[in-house]
Amino acid sequence: MPLKAVILIGGPQKGTRFRPLSFEVPKPLFPVAGVPMVQHHIEACAKVPGMKEILLMGFYQPNEALSRFLVSAQQEFKVPIRYLQEYAALGTGGGIYHFRDQILSGGAEAFFVLNADVCSEFPLQEMLEFRQQHGDMHSFVILGTTANRTQALNYGCIVANADTQEVQHYVEKPSTFVSEIINCGIYLFTPAIFQHIGEVFQRNQQELALEENSNGWQRAEVIRLEQDVFTALAGSGKLYVYKTDGFWSQIKSAGSAIYASRLYLNQYSKSHPERLAQNKPGGPVIRGNVYIHPTASIDSTAVLGPNVSIGEGVTVGTGVRVRESIVLHGASLHIDSETLFRDGRLTPSITILGCSVTIPAEVVILNSIVLPHKELSRSYKNQIIL
What distance in Å separates the CA atoms of residue 17 and residue 370, rounded to the nearest whole number? Predict the structure, then answer.
């Protein structure tokens, strides 16, 4: 069966919780377990028999890093990969509707849609088999997993028939508990989905036509799969949920990237054992799962792990201990007690926090000095905070 895949990578206005890390590396290319975040998605899609093309979709301006990555990925996974740039942020449904002709070209009978900011085992083949066993050939499948009652409030919640797994009710981020089954942001559609998205588009146009001084075309194209489409499809007999027991997590912040890296590194023992560093005579001490880029220089007295990913061109000096970390390309880690300043600048990779400094969750402080009794509300890099 001819298949395609669409990976929604968003754009620079999104992912603000991921800053400042995304200032230098676009979030889809941020390394998780040693490879760009979106490469895990591409690899999973490329393994599915019948996959004819993989489309990345978002509103990033095309740039050298993204183009270089696409060429490399296409060569490695032997499947055509293209980037389709939206003219504006169109939502999870608006983008695929805008590019529906591109998705359907070549006679694709079904296509996957994957959000780039999720970490998963990506049971795509299982979703295909599930669809053959449930509903008809025009039905749609959401990948779901279970969460506790508190966590579920942060996601799309699915109420499904226990026997058929048909979605009977869908609510995006409910204010009260609805279900422990949550939406994983990975879908299997047929071309019939565009009829349902088109109905939302027509309705948006009609509503906006009644408003004065509105830019109806652009705003009408902003369509959300979750709130606008799934909510309406629930209970129609066309939408089903495939529940996975495999690992899954969102990657919305720096802290969640560390957690995702741990999940992927654990998976490498089966899928990519060659990516995991091993203890060798004369080499650094490796504890647990660790990825080291071939160009990195690691001192033999260093201790790495568990859950460490060392990027391209990184230098780890004498006696350095790293754990639960992603070290980005070009970083230099040393224990240097001589001085805080070199050539009038802060020595790289040193951060000092004074006493009684309060830093909330998901705030990142890089190469900075913070004087005592400060409450920080945002991330800082290369600063002295008085």
Answer: 21
